[in-house]
Design a protein that fits this description.
Blueprint: E1 3-6, E2 9-15, E3 17-20, H1 34-46, E4 51-53, H2 62-73, E5 81-86, H3 95-108, E6 113-121, H4 123-131, H5 134-143, E7 147-154, H6 158-167, E8 173-177, H7 193-202, E9 206-210, H8 223-230, H9 238-247, E10 252-257, H10 262-273, H11 282-297, H12 318-330, H13 343-350, H14 374-385
Parallel strand pairs: 3-4, 3-10, 4-5, 5-6, 6-7, 7-8, 8-9, 9-10
Antiparallel strand pairs: 1-2
Helix pairs in contact: 1-2, 1-10, 6-7, 8-11, 9-10, 12-14
Length: 386
């Protein structure tokens, strides 16, 4: 296993592969398969993985319980770094910060969390958390020894990312979505990409990467993309190409992978063993670029996720509909306008956030900086993924 350091945390050597505990194996009854997780945790540690990442909402709050129990019973708690997150959507008043943290410590069976993040910050949640005094809470919790290091995870534009970084000099690390589809934050407002890597480096903030394989899309891409990789000068699985792309950036301390099968764990650990920054020659980077171009050519709606079109008067979650539409298209399932119903989209409809409540009023059209005919594109999305 390879290790890197956070710029402001010199004493800690962190495995470049972290175990993300959001998509754990489950039993037929839909519960976490605790024994399968136990074997994955033991194998991860044996392979050199020393960073384990959970969060308050993962698996309905049960991820924290399971990892806490396993680390205690396997006597691994003091041998690894444990990361957890404060959920802004649960925080309604200042006292909630300490209440939630104490609940997490109890569930994790520990007296401290090594890496504690404000979870999934965007402009709205950051403003609200700041007003409620999250910085004072984080510093107080760190002084008390309940948390060791302070960070945040993020989903918004590069401008908001810079605002959060500039607002507080005590950030020690951050977590962003980054992969070869989400590398350019100037084009994709929802993921700040390489611009965030550079800005974090300027401020000596270590970067953790989430979704390095885009929720599995890059690990199991359409056959056309697999053929692109098969024709490459060096043979790797699609997952290897995706992970190595992220590890190319020396600003990345580690990436998180939601490994829920032993073969995934072993393959990713082996890839980590053979990955270094700035190691892929131009010919190999060109292969990745070709794969990226194919995915981008399948994007149906040029939506950047800026959210200028919302709130919709009827409650349509326009950016989320388009994001799901594009994700299904990039999976290759809509070739030739073939229908491919999406469970995610159907749930949006059930929750009153899908196209079923759109009345075509056009209130969103004038707000769109990309000049998208939003009502027309929503109808197309509904016809293909509904």
């Amino acid at each position: 296993m390879k290790y890197r350091r956070f710029p402001k945390i010199d004493e800690s050597e962190i495995s470049i592969l972290g175990f993300g505990l959001m998509r754990l194996p489950q039993t037929k009854e839909g519960e976490i398969d605790e024994e399968a997780v136990r074997e994955l945790v033991k194998t991860a540690y044996a392979q050199g993985v020393n960073y384990f990442d959970t969060a308050y909402p993962y698996h309905g709050g049960k991820s924290e319980l399971v990892i806490g129990k396993i680390l205690e019973e396997e006597k691994l708690r003091d041998k690894v770094y444990l990361a957890d997150k404060c959920p802004p959507w649960v925080i309604k008043e200042t006292s909630d910060f300490d209440r939630i943290l104490d609940e997490q410590l109890s569930k994790l069976r520990t007296d401290h969390i090594d890496f504690y993040l404000m979870h999934a910050l965007n402009k709205e949640s950051w403003t609200r958390m700041k007003d409620l005094g999250c910085i004072a809470f984080l510093e107080r919790a760190k002084h008390a020894g309940k948390i060791k290091h302070i960070g945040f995870s993020f989903h918004d534009s590069i401008d908001v990312f810079k605002e959060i970084v500039d607002s507080y000099g005590g950030w020690e690390f951050c977590q962003i979505q980054y992969n070869y589809l989400d590398d350019d934050g100037e084009k994709k407002r929802g993921n700040p990409g390489k611009q965030a890597l550079a800005y974090a480096a300027e401020h000596e903030i270590g970067v953790i990467v989430m979704e390095p394989l885009r929720g599995g899309l890059l690990a199991n891409p359409p056959d056309v993309v697999k053929d692109i990789f098969k024709a490459a000068p060096v043979q790797r699985t699609p997952a290897e190409w995706g992970l190595k792309f992220v590890w190319e950036s020396q600003e990345v301390v580690l990436l998180l992978s939601g490994m829920n099968a032993m073969e995934q764990m072993l393959e990713n650990c082996a890839t980590a063993d053979n990955s270094n920054p700035n190691a892929m020659p131009r010919a190999q980077m060109a292969v990745v670029s070709k794969a990226k171009e194919w995915f981008e050519s399948r994007i149906r709606v040029p939506c950047t996720g800026c959210h200028y079109c919302v709130p919709c008067p009827q409650g349509v979650s326009i950016p989320d509909v388009f994001a799901d539409f594009n994700n299904v298209a990039m999976s290759g399932k809509l070739e030739g306008d073939k229908k491919s119903p999406s469970e995610w989209y159907r749930n949006m409809n059930k929750n009153g956030q899908g196209v079923s409540v759109c009345i075509g009023c056009g209130a969103c059209v004038s707000k769109c900086p990309q000049h998208i005919d939003i009502p027309a594109e929503l109808k197309k999305a509904d016809s293909l993924i509904g």
